[in-house]
Amino acid sequence: GRQVLGVDINRLVGREFRLGSTVIRGIRLCEPCAYLARATRREVIPHLVGHGGLRAGIVQGGVLRVGDPIGFEDD
Questions:
Q1: What is the pTM of this model?
Q2: How far apart are CA 16 and CA 24, in angstroms?
Q3: How far apart are CA 18 and CA 32, in angstroms?
Q4: According to the model, what pLDDT value does residue 1 have?
């Protein structure tokens, strides 16, 4: 499934979450796009469907570090 630091990406859509000292709001899932298709070999794209990522906005800026856990504002 879709996992980021052990968190289901689908759970992040429409929610605010904390990553490091930054507060982020998940906007929508992001599937592989035409840019990625041009930057790689087209035959790679079918293997990436369902593993694209998340479009998100910054609610409150802060510092992010590799390995920071994800926390939810409403938990």
A1: 0.66
A2: 5
A3: 25
A4: 41
